[in-house]
Amino acid sequence: MKKQAPLFYILSVIAVFAVSSSTLEAQTQWRRAYRKASKELKNNQRTLAEEEFRKALTIDSTNNYALFGLGNTQYEQGKYAEAADTYKKISVEAGTISQQQAAELYHNLGNSQMKQKQYAQAAEFYKQSLRLNPTDNETRYNLTLALKLMEKNNQQQPQQNQQQPNPNPKENKSQQDKQNSPQNNPENQQNQQIDPKTSNQILDSYKQDDDKTRQKFEERKRNQQAQPEDNNKKQW
Predict the structure, then answer these.
(1) How far is the CA of 167 from the CAs of 170, 174, 176, in angstroms?
(2) How far apart are CA 14 and CA 17, in angstroms?
């Protein structure tokens, strides 16, 4: 009598085949969405590109390439806060991206903070990028710019505070103390860590390359009529 395969074995083979087929279909759909998103982004169809990147992320929500592409698309649409949030979903600590990609990620995070005038946070991200890729002149230039703008902003802040009306001193002081609290204001924490003296020390360390880098980006700015951080957003 011919032996028959046990029922549980047959069901197991069917289940494995079904899972494999489903996984293959999902991978195909993801590649299709990602390629279409990249094509739309290349054609400056940013809204359509964002839709396709989101489709790809519904299939694989942790895919670094789709997250990076979505962040770049949001950045190019002026959604700088959203772009920063998207970039931050990419885990550098997980070791799923290369050192170069991590440097580019921090560079773009710095750009998104610069656009929001969060100069202290931008400087920190640029420094992280330079630790991973010390030869990147674009990041070095942006760091120098962020530190100078941060120092200028810190110098202007006391004057602005003196000029502001204060109709209710007690209430305003309470609100100001709350806003200036380190727990409630991450930028204040960064400003404490990067004071003007530290900024000058960092600037001095990059002084040799700063002039050449500045000339390069000022020339590019004149030719393309765009801000430096727009021109050097990193792409994967």
Answers:
(1) 9, 13, 14
(2) 5
The overall pTM is greater than 0.90 = no
Q: Which of 139-148, 157-166, 203-212 has the highest mean pLDDT?
A: 139-148
User: Given the structure tokens 């069917």, which residue do they identify?
Assistant: 14
* Residue 218: other Cβ atoms inside 10 A: 12
Residue closest to 31 by CA, chosen among 61, 45, 52: 52
DSSP 8-state symbol, 206 = T
Phi, psi (rounded to 5 degrees) for 235: -120, 145
**CA of 137: how far to CAs of 35, 45, 49, 106, in Å?**
30, 29, 29, 14
Q: What is the pLDDT of residues 50-79, one digit of tens each?
A: 999 999 999 999 999 999 999 999 999 999
Two tokens, residue 36: 């279409």
H/E/C letters for each residue in the chain?
Answer: CCCCCCHHHHHHHHHHHHHHHHHHHHHHHHHHHHHHHHHHHHCCCHHHHHHHHHHHHHHCCCCHHHHHHHHHHHHHCCCHHHHHHHHCCCCCCCCCCCHHHHHHHHHHHHHHHHHCCCHHHHHHHHHHHHHHCCCCHHHHHHHHHHHHHHHHHHHHHHHHHHHCCCCCHHHHHHHHHHHHCCCCCHHHHHHHHCCHHHHHHHHHHCHHHHHHHHHHHHHHHHHHCCCHHHHCCCCC
